[in-house]
Amino acid sequence: MPGDQKLYSTVFGTINERLFPCAMILDKHSFVTELQANKIIFSGSGADKFSEFTTSENAFYCETGNTIKALTLLSYKKFAQNIFSDFHSVSPVYVKDFYNG
After folding, report:
1. pTM for the predicted model, two decimal places
2. Which of 34, 36, 53, 82 has the fewest CB atoms within 10 Å, i.e. the most exposed one?
3. d(Cα 66, Cα 43) in Å, to the nearest integer?
4. Is the separation of the CB atoms in 25 and 69 below 8 Å?
5. Residue 4 DSSP code
6. In three state form, how does the secondary structure of 41-61 look?
7. Each residue of 49-59: pLDDT tens digit?
8. In 3-state terms, the chain is what percent helix, strand and coil (to 5)?
């Protein structure tokens, strides 16, 4: 079996429609139902891990990840437009167990 297959996953219906975030361990059954009905683009470090498990024609992989350069440019554009997020009223979603020890 390939290396560590634990990852954090979020599925979006559209760019701003988060369907379900979850922590998961990938296996041959991951995303089977979703891939039967939809074309899905996988990105990030989990995409490489998942490509080892599926040969679905509905699975596509984005080679460009969230690099520092890309995130810096996106952040600067929002800053220049005075667009800020209100983190004061946001509650974090912890999908993995948290251990402090």
Report:
1. 0.59
2. 82
3. 9
4. no
5. -
6. EECCHHHHHHHCCCCCCCEEE
7. 888 888 899 99
8. 30, 25, 50
At residue 36, what is the residue type? Answer: Q
Among the listed residues 2, 4, 6, the one whose alpha carbon sits nearest the alpha carbon of residue 96: 6
Looking only at Cα atoms, what is the longest distance across the chain? 48
Rounded distance between C-alpha atoms, residue 21 and residue 30, angstroms: 14
pLDDT at residue 1 greater than cutoff 50: no
Backbone angles phi, psi at 59, to 5 degrees: -95, 125
38-2-98-20 Cα dihedral, nearest 10 degrees? 0
Produce one character per residue of 75-95: b if its CB has 16 or more CB atoms within 10 Å, e if not: eeeeeeeeeeeeeeeeeeeee
